[in-house]
């Protein structure tokens, strides 16, 4: 067994996928999640994540960056503005990654198709997989490391830690909002309902719009925000249909289990 060997059910899903990062295909509507990697360490530790874990990984950076922001040598005004800049900068990074590389059409090779499916196609085919709604270590840690190196090259150590703290705070907010939009099915606030509905429109109706998860700010700036009563009605109907199907399954079936039926 190689480190990066994929499971048969994952390979079957890639073969069936049409390469479009859009709505759930008919075959996958009864499947909540797939096992992707054969290697148990890679699958269970690096490629999946409980939603609380990003707070464990990045919480120390968020707290220490905030502490430096208000106690640092350049004063709290500079520190807080730098911290907020990091958080705001992440919303732009989130939007850019989601709109362009995540929704890019794969090339003709199978390797390109697998890469795109792993990066974001999987999420659109299995949108309520609880262990892949927050970015797992295999995705979030390398991005965080690259950003920290860039900040360290551009700023002194204190400035880099403050900016990185703000960035990781923005990331954590994004991850938890994303989980919320998929699994908190009866939001009580207007903001919660709006975030959930806007993301449902992206998943089930207008796949190239509403790319911001934690905020619609950059969708407004770049003209990719969509909100109409018809789009929201259709998207929420599709969302509730998937959720109702999940509710009828005490133990959500895997692709292998379905194949035997």
Helix content: 55-70%
In whole angstroms, the N-to-C terminal distance is 28 Å
> What is the β-strand count?
0
Task: Count helical runs.
Answer: 11
The SSE order reads: HHHHHHHHHHH
Strand content: under 5%
- The Rg value, from CA coordinates, equals 19 Å
User: Which oligomeric form is depicted?
Assistant: single chain
Question: How can the largest sheet be summarized?
Answer: none
Mean pLDDT: 89
Instruction: Identify low-pLDDT runs.
Output: 250-261
Query: Strand pairing plus helix content: what structural class?
Result: mainly alpha
Overall form: globular
What is the total number of structural domains? 1
What can you tell me about this protein's structure?
The protein has one domain (8-259). 63% of the residues lie in helices and 0% in strands. It has helices at residues 8-16, 40-46, 53-71, 76-99, 110-125, 137-154, 157-183, 190-204, 217-222, 229-247, 255-259.
Could you give a quick summary of the protein structure above?
With 261 residues, this protein is mainly α.
